[in-house]
Amino acid sequence: MLTSLHIKNYALIDELNVAFNNGLTIITGETGAGKSILLGGLSLVLGKRADLSQVKNATEKCIIEAVFDIANYDLKELFLSLDLDYDVQTIIRREILPSGKSRAFINDTPVTLESLVALSSYLIDIHSQQQTQQLTQDDYQFKVIDALAENKSNLEDFTKQLGTYKKLHKTLVELKVSKAELVKEYDYNLFLSTELNEINLEKINLEDLEIQYEELNNVEVIGEKLSSAKAILTAEDLGVIDQINSVKQELSKISSFGKPYETLKERIISVGIELDDILIEMDNLEDNLSTDPQELERINSKLQIVNNLFQKHSVSEIEDLIAIKKDLQSKIDDTESLDQTILDKEQEILKINEKLNQIALKIHKNRKKVIPIFVSKLEAILSDLGMPNAKFKVELEPTDQFVKNGKDNLQFLFMANKGSSFNELKKSASGGELSRIMLAIKSILAEYIQLPSIMFDEIDTGVSGEISNKMGDIMKQMSSSMQVFSITHLPQIAAKGNSHFKVFKTDIEDMTHTQLKKLNEDERIVEIAQMLGGLTITDSAMAHAKQLLN
């Protein structure tokens, strides 16, 4: 409920602070006194776009702040989804800066207008004759019937399952498109994969292959050079080994003369040992040399295949070819398994489809069950509101397609007078009739769900005294379970309020100001007497006012 409203520097309002209670709050005032200004300020809190022209003093900031008690509204999840701090006493503030820039805050957290609208729709409902057009819209009509049918949990379940259904269906379409594309590439991918598999890439060491190729391809040159090198080492008298031995003998003669000479001798001995090992290794290599044209051809062929694959796939490493082979195999597997994947998705969709149909049937049955109750209550209230011949028909037709709230088409049909025929509500009801129908529907809704605070803005326009009395009774009844405001010109309704505020204008220093005052009991009597008989208050008007209030 709205507990307080603060308006500063807005339209004709310098500064206004007002506290509200629950129950039925009446707001009265002469035409042009500024009731629309009050609504305009409240609308800014609810997310209406700001306009610098609305600011009273354009050099100062305009502030509008409303405090709501939201303990009964179950809005913690909404606050979480909007990334806001939840507080039972929630404060919404709008500011219009002299620059024309507008800012919005919820519990001192800056928010966008979208977030403000998302929250405010749960807090207060400003109901005017223009807003009655909402009654002709499908979404609102479903909302009414589903509230009476207690379909909330069913609709939440349906919405969840429908989201899953749509995702699965989208995935299925994508799979079928992928299949069509993959099938075109399947043969080529299979050819490339087979080509890569045949060479057994994982067992190829490219460096070893190249070494083997060079050795086999140059065996004669290698043999010749090994023989020549061995001759250099072993030639009699002039061979390197004999020369090293001579050096060793000479150094042995002086090794006892000091450590440096001993070290030189040991180093020469080491060189001699290393040369002996080298000679043995050369002998082994020479003995193992052999020509193998077939092996040379095999290695050459494998190297050519690898190099061709490098060129074909624009890579230079065996690891890259292995990665390409795995990717190709994955595509081949995907293509080969896609039919089964598509079949699995189709089975999932069938299961979700079955669940959706079951939930939609529950929703339909609940709707069908409450429609007669709704029509009966609505016609009874409309009869009290001066529409005794008004008849309602709610047509509920199942469809073959899933929509966002089930599988039904819903239509409100209305007949205002005897002898006429049922027609769509928007075509058959006048503005005044729509206002009374909306009042009746909201009074019914208040029995089933927690409605936001509601402000009826001159909904009683053009209504006679007795009917206005009935309207007041309905608002009074609604206010027993929710906060109700009524901006009215009718004394019969004004007298029903638990509290009463008057909007009025004053002129101060050649400036007009709009003010709002809460009336005490005596002031209420005077206000209602003036509503009955005009500014000149008669004794009979005062007596009638007291009678209405009692």
Automatic annotation (TrEMBL):
The keyword Coiled coil belongs to this UniProt entry's keyword annotation: yes
Family: Belongs to the RecN family.
Protein biosynthesis recorded as keyword: no
Protein's UniProt name: DNA repair protein RecN
Origin: domain of life: Bacteria
Listed GO CC annotations: bacterial nucleoid
Keywords: ATP-binding, Coiled coil, DNA damage, DNA repair, Nucleotide-binding
Coiled coil: 192-219
CDD domains for the chain: ABC_RecN (cd03241)
Annotated function: May be involved in recombinational repair of damaged DNA.
RecF/RecN/SMC N-terminal domain boundaries: 2-506
Gene Ontology molecular function: ATP binding
One Pfam family this sequence matches: SMC_N
PANTHER family to which the protein is assigned, alphabetical: DNA REPAIR PROTEIN RECN
GO biological process, one term: DNA recombination
